[in-house]
From TrEMBL:
Record protein name field: Uncharacterized protein
Pfam families referenced in this protein's UniProt entry, alphabetically: Bestrophin (PF01062)
Transmembrane segments: 78-106, 118-136
Keywords of the record: Membrane, Transmembrane, Transmembrane helix
Molecular function GO labels: chloride channel activity
Length: 174
């Protein structure tokens, strides 16, 4: 993508970023070299602080690459089916355990285990079903209906917003 015309990036730096196959690697290398220069000149950073900041920059880069991996890689169908089977088996086991806890709580007239069992069943079910919906969306971005093209548009908008957040030159699109 071309850089936005903000005037913040000089033409020489813009040429370096545009010619690089991975502009984010150039950005992270520049940040690390800037931190090292600040530490070397003893202007602002002592050595322990430099190491902490370098670790934070490396962690930021890893998280950014993970985000791009998960938004740009389609999951295999078999992995989605395996995740679905595991989640539904867990939910069936969760219902059985919750029924046992609720029965024991009703017999002893204890309200705390009964309410805990109910909220655990409700919340965990919604979380896992949400994860399944996310897996299904990533596995089949066009949706179940072959005429459902807005899903692909929404996914493209998500990719654009993620890329905009990872680039430091502009804000996410509205």
């Amino acid at each position: 993508d071309p850089l936005p015309p903000s005037g913040l990036c000089p033409p020489a730096e813009s040429a370096v970023l545009s010619s690089s196959p991975d502009p984010l690697a150039v950005l992270y290398a520049w940040v690390l070299s800037l931190l090292a220069a600040l530490s070397r000149d003893h202007r602002a950073l002592p050595e322990p602080t430099l190491q902490l900041l370098q670790a934070q920059v490396a962690e930021l880069r890893n998280h950014a690459s993970e985000a791009l991996l998960y938004t740009q890689t389609q999951l295999p169908y078999a992995a989605v089916q395996l995740a679905s089977a595991v989640v539904f088996a867990f939910l069936a086991q969760l219902v059985a355990v919750t029924a046992g806890v609720a029965g024991a709580a009703l017999r002893s007239r204890a309200l705390e285990p009964l309410s805990t069992a109910y909220f655990t069943l409700a919340l965990v079910s919604f979380v896992y079903l949400g994860l399944l919906a996310l897996h299904a969306e990533l596995a089949n971005p066009l949706g179940d209906d072959p005429c459902d093209f807005p899903t692909a548009t929404y996914r493209a908008a998500l990719l654009d917003a993620t890329a905009a957040v990872l680039r430091h030159g502009r804000a996410p699109p509205p």
